[in-house]
Specification:
Blueprint (H helix, E strand, L loop, with lengths): L1 H18 L5 E10 L6 H12 L8 E7 L2 E4 L5 E3 L15 E5 L3 E9 L5 E5 L2 E4 L1
Parallel strand pairs: 1-2
Antiparallel strand pairs: 1-6, 3-4, 3-5, 6-7, 7-8
Helix pairs in contact: 1-2
């Protein structure tokens, strides 16, 4: 079950960020997972809960955004969502396309509660105060 490894990597990323912010605690972590990434949602949730129980991360919430596969037509340059593995461009009918999303596995954000009781959401390299 590779979802256990994924959940562990998520928690390692959270721990790394918290080390740079002494006195802070993680509230929620968001991840973006493509439907083609081969990650089972139920297994990931189970693994995350199993790894956080009876730890400082026990109250940490996992927010998973599942991303549908998208392609770009090489003939007309239109982007479209791929459903049921149908790769025909809805605009021109071409099969000549390139996948542009759907297999990602990445951090989306980390919401923390800083020492001064201020909720902060860290997205990529930006910090947005609520």
């Amino acid at each position: 079950m590779h979802e256990m490894g994924i959940a562990n990597s998520i928690l390692e990323g959270v721990a790394k960020e918290l080390r740079s912010r002494p006195g802070s605690r993680a509230i929620q972590v968001g991840v973006r997972i493509g439907e083609l990434a081969g990650v089972d949602p139920g297994s990931l949730s189970f693994a995350f809960e199993a790894l956080t129980i009876d730890t400082p991360f026990a109250a940490l919430k996992l927010d998973v955004e599942y991303v549908a596969p998208r392609s770009r037509c090489r003939e007309c340059n239109r982007e479209f969502e791929v459903r049921n593995y149908e790769l025909f461009c809805p605009a021109c009918g071409s099969l000549n396309s390139t996948r542009i999303s759907g297999d990602e596995l990445e951090f989306k954000y980390l919401e923390i509660d800083e020492a001064e009781d201020e909720a902060v959401k860290c997205c990529d390299l930006e910090v947005n105060k609520k």
